[in-house]
Amino acid sequence: MAKISPVLEIKQPGLLATLQDRGRSGYLAAGITSGGAVDEYAFLWANKLLDNPADAAQIEVTLGGFEANLLRRTQMVICGAPMQVALNGRRLPTWLVFDVEPGDVLTIAAAPRGVRSYLAVRGGFRAEAVLGSMATVKRDQLGGLRGDGSALTAGDVLTAPVLSAPALLPRRPRTDLLQTQPANEPLTIDVIAAGQYERFSQQAREQFCSQTYQVTAAQDRMGMRLQGPKSLSWEHDQILSEPLPVGAIQIPPDGQPIIMLVDRQTLGGYPKIGTVTWRSRCLLGQATAGTELVFNRVSLAAAQNEWRQFQRFFGSA
Amino acid sequence: MSMRIQMSTAAENAVMLSLIDEQGNSPLSIACNEQLHALADWLLDQHHDCIVEVVPSYASILIYYDAMNMDEATFIARIQPPSDWQKQHRQTTTNSESEHQIQVCYDTVVAPDLERVAQHAGLTVAEVITQHQQPTYHVYALGFAPGFAYLGDVPAAIRCPRLETPRQKVPALSVAIANQQTSVYPMESPGGWNLIGQVVELPQLKAGDKVRFIAIDLDTFKRRRQEVSHG
């Protein structure tokens, strides 16, 4: 078994830096949510570029402001938001594997677009898994470096296995695989009809798919509130609370959608008009307040095909 | 009670199973919920090869399935319970639900909303305490936070709506009521339910379990809490 040794010390965590993997599974019935990387697409790319297992833990950095000292030689990559990354003050591209030496200083500074960066190291960061996962979920007080759901703070030292495998060549994904939001167009978010879709009125369903929504500042790892010109109405009684899948689009009484992300509560009582596809919810994980988006209804079969292809590609099924 | 099973898409890899009555509604009843939990057990027991995780709640179960290898229609056809699944299930499984007794201190020192609940009900504090202990509660579902169990049904006489403005911090182990439901907050968290007591210890509950609350006085509560914290 590979020796585990310190690899990085946090100097500044920024707004929120947490240890994340692909999340907990098997405990939803106990009220314990999944957690994990919000933009799992970027997360899986980072592990793939480093030849890591798909589930190897990484640091999810929110809106930059992050600084760390490197403690030994290894290789890293930063995927996700187009943040300004620098090593010892020299700019580094994102999505490209780079070498680090002891004494190096790595910084991730905020950019006008994008929310979350994924900092990965060869072999993956290590911490004691809690209920099968290192994913940090503050609300559940589970996971992370201390196992109690707390975020990373200045002075935290992270460890990773020391690998004897030869160094990787610097490599990055083919550019056509890195779908990004066109600068002047609304983001297209694919949704499948799910939940109470059939019980919403024809008018509400049409409004939902035709109007342009804005992402608001009311967003975190649990969910994201949107604002649209017209609110959607639900013309029935309240529903009984139901389990919530990640990506569920809830319509609360004010008629403005809330999209559930990976730290969602396990049960919710608002009617749901659909579920955002896996690929689209990864895109939402990078949407800052003010981002415009439109919903595009896709068939379940199309959504499943896309999801299966990604899972096979990343070896993460 | 004649209930139908309705399946609907929930996500790329999940379906929602709902129990509905003749009018198409999902009823909030202990009988319906007991049937639902039995169904969740039956599904896991019979179809663990294609089911990844089940999440039962009041009248619906979210089922994550092996969507890498199976499309939704195939999965739904595969898990369709036969009409006599309940009979089969009773024959093959033993009752795994357990009954818990939980000691509660209802002293107003640890029950900041008890007097208001009593006023709302037009009862004395002592009557509210007696009423709250009267039922054997049913665990409908777990959610909101790890280990937070939705218990019912609270006697009609002491039902009280949620607070208009939730508290930022509810102390851990507080006993609370909201409408027909009661619960114990497993950890300190925000919360909008009415706080009517505190427990010394909260056993791990699972959906379908039964719970009885037993009153203890403040001295016993303090002593027991000391014993627990000194392990």
Brief account:
By secondary structure, chain A is of the alpha+beta class. Chain A has helices at 40-49, 202-210, 278-284, 300-314, and strands spanning 4-12, 16-20, 58-62, 66-70, 74-80, 84-87, 90-92, 98-100, 105-109, 116-121, 157-161, 187-192, 213-219, 223-227, 242-243, 248-250, 258-260, 267-268, 272-276, 292-297. Chain B has 231 residues and is α+β, with helices and mostly antiparallel strands.
Low-confidence stretches of chain B: none
What is the radius of gyration of chain A computed over CA atoms, rounded to a whole number of angstroms?
20 Å
Side by side, the strands of the main sheet of chain A go 12-19-16-17-14-13-20
Largest sheet of chain B: 7 strands, mixed, barrel
Order of helices and strands of chain B: EEHEEHHEHHEEEEEEEEH
Tally of alpha and pi helices of chain A = 4
The sequence of SSEs of chain A as H and E is: EEHEEEEEEEEEEHEEEEEEEHEH
Strand content of chain B: 25-35%
The total count of helices of chain B amounts to: 6
Structural class of chain B: alpha+beta
Structural class of chain A: alpha+beta
Q: What characteristic shape of chain B results from the CA principal axes? A: elongated
Corresponding CATH superfamily of the largest domain in chain B: Cyclophilin-like
Which segments of chain A are poorly predicted (pLDDT under 50) over 5 or more consecutive residues? none
Radius of gyration of chain B: 20 Å
